[in-house]
Amino acid sequence: MNSPTYLVPLLPLAAFVVNFLFFRKNKHLAPLISVAGVAAAFGLSLYLAMGVLEHPQPVVDSFKWLDVAGGTLGNFTIKVGTLLDPLCALMLLVVTAVSLLVHVYSLGYMHDDDGIARFFMYLSLFTFSMLGLVVSPNLYQMYIFWELVGLCSYLLIGYYYKKPEANNACKKAFVVNRVGDFGMFLGILFLTYYLGTSDFQELPAKIGAWPVLGPSWLPLGVVALLLFCGAVGKSAQFPLHIWLPDAMEGPTPVSALIHAATMVAAGVYMVARTYVVFDASSFSSVNAPAVVAYVGAFTSIFAATIACTQFDIKRVLAYSTLSQLGYMVMALGAGGLGMTAGMFHLFTHAFFKALLFLGAGSVIHAVHSNDIRQMGGLLKKMPVTGITFLIACIAIAGIPPLAGFFSKDEILMALKEAHLDHLYTLASCVAFLTAFYMFRLFFLTFTGNLPQGSHAHESPTSMTFPLVMLALMSVVAGWTSLPHGKNFGHYIHYERPAGMAEQWKRSEALATAHPSERGTAAAHPILDAAEASAAHAPEEAAEAEKSHAFEWDPAIYIPATGVGLLGILLASVMYLFKKLSPDTLINSLGGLTRGIHKLAYNKYYIDEFYAWVVYKVYFVFSKGIAWFDRHVVDGFMNGLAWLSQASGGVLKRTQSGQVQAYALAFVLGLTALLVIVRNVLF
Amino acid sequence: MQDAVFYLTAALMIFCAFRAVTSPFIFRSALYLAATLALTAVQYLLLKAEFVAVVQILVYVGAVVILIIFAVMLTAQLGEGSNRQTNRFALVAGASSLALGFGLYKMLTGHTWVLAAPAAVEALDGSPKAVGSALINSYILPFEIIGFLLFTALVGAVLIARKEPNS
Amino acid sequence: MSVGLTQFLGLSALLFSIGIFGLLTRRNAVGLLMATELILNSVNLNLVAFNRFVHPGAMNGQIFTLFTITVAAGEATVALALVVSLFRAKRSVMVEDINAMKW
What is the ipTM of this complex? Predict the structure, then answer.
């Protein structure tokens, strides 16, 4: 082991194991051990990240796990180990930092819970799984941890296992995730089948050298889409988004850690990791990045409209998370710049979304209700919670100089650069809606009059301290992308493998060329590609260096800030000064707006649609299958059983229990053997 | 002379053996068996295996047959003849066992045995002294093992035949 | 014709057949035991005859016969103990009454 990266996931695992073996019932020691584990992991991540800032070159540290000999593409090995590069270091920092703060917060929030030891055990296990996912050097290891985080999510959503809603929600989350994971696993298998590797470090070279890359080549696009299926499941994109709002049945710190800041970002992270596959597929007949962009964009606007109509504080935040994840995914679809922007938004969003959830938890802790209509005026009673919540709202609304402003701007810029103009417009609308619903939430919760008989009070320090820390991060996190020497984009960016575009051009030329020329030209594609890449390498590198430095364009950031302010303004008119009643707006255009509101309020009936599909379509189909199974398959099996029983009934007569009958058969057999083998009788 | 003794003894042996397996009286069977075994001893003498002949008489006729007679007396009434003593396989069993014996004979005689020179055959010494020295010298290990086996058989027989303490 | 190996082999094969016949047809367990002794006896005869006519120089055949006789004695002891024990349990020594292994 060359680097101590592998220790980062192992520290929380150690905490989990110790708690599991010795302190399963210990309400005082188990939380402290978990906190210690994640704090150590955070310290180590910080140290590693410092190192990465100095030396951004990837460090791979792995050993062979499985040797698969003689596949279609020769031998290939599955490795287990760690890969430390800027992308990984960033995720390590985000995960350990948010996890640490959530651990500390949970000390206060879960203080009176009987299952606190179990809760911290799960948290440690989750942190281990997520860190293992982050350091994975290949897709196989990533898939293992991918499923592990899914399991932890299941356990934590179902933490209040006596509540039927929690039970249903955790099952729903698990099953819906499995749908996406199935596609992802198929994608991994296809990828290994075609390229013979799933190591992130080897992918660019392998794809760059792949001889048949080009518009006619379908499989890579399919692989990219299948991988994206996994991201759709884990990052809760439409149409697999339905599990995330229900996941709010889990304890609030869990919602903050898993379902807002870290685990749901795993899908975005995975796409960023395998971005070369997506990029290469944009050359093929399946343009995966476009699909990614449109899925993200749709989820983003779709969830934002729902968020405007909900009254459950955690649900608003859940749909806001969906919307922001859609934002990141949309950015991923916008090329190399978008990948940087998406990861950057993931980074900033983790802080302010965790802050929002933890603040919501603090509020729920104080008023014992989730309904924002029963809240109000809490700013005076809970100043720390209120102010940090306000900071988070400003950050997510994209007002400078807070974190959300920078990341949202980069996404808009990337969309503009990629000439996705209608998506750019849509993203601006989402930014407006985001500002609106966040401030609607803030005004309804923290301003106005306190409800009658409220005994709300500020939360303990263990809960407010993480809020303050996260608020600090929400302010400063965005500054990392300020255009000076080595900013965020310098470390985290996507470089198209040398020669890939060159090759694409050639294969396009081939497609139009005369068929007789094709054979000769295709004979040495790798050689040619190598020559071409050698010739163009310096040029392309310079181009790449330029392209991942963002240029500040007032034409983008002024309107972006403007729509944010507009959203805040509308929210304050409606909910702070109460000059405009929501009902007036709903009824403004008669049936049309009323209908839209009803649709959004009922989450576009997606759950009902799925239920209809399952209960009506699927059940009718299943009935047919069941009939076939009962009568044809079972009939065949029963026939077989009857046959063996009948033949057994006949054959059992030979087993008379009479020793001499057996001996007679023995002697007869011996005689027959003598005759057959030695032919002695005749 | 020797040939005559052989054929006479052989004929008697076959008759006694046949009666031993077919007699309806189990006690008579035991006596026919004793006669067969004793006649075998005569054949051993013809084959110049004097010590083996003596052991045959001592162990088989003197011990095993007596044991069998004891068992007969312990388990059945003497003169029990009304019970059929053979089962319904007689015909098939007779045919197949004859075929098997014939097959064995053909197989054994079909092989060309390298016979020893007549002088050497005549010089065979089956006296107790010769057999005893062979047992003690070349075959000492099997001899000891057989001793142990007999001991085991003795213990086993006692254990099996002993009455349960409770019943 | 002078008596040689062939005659002894014939005699022993015939005794063997008779023993097998008894083994297959006797109903009495003691009878089965007697048939077994006959079979062993025929084998012993074979061994001694081979010793004399094929390997007169060595004692192998005779020694082996001695061992067989001894083992047969041991076997008879155990088998008869079994028969006695069986008789006590079942009040019968007819082998067709022992059919606990039946289907």
Answer: 0.89
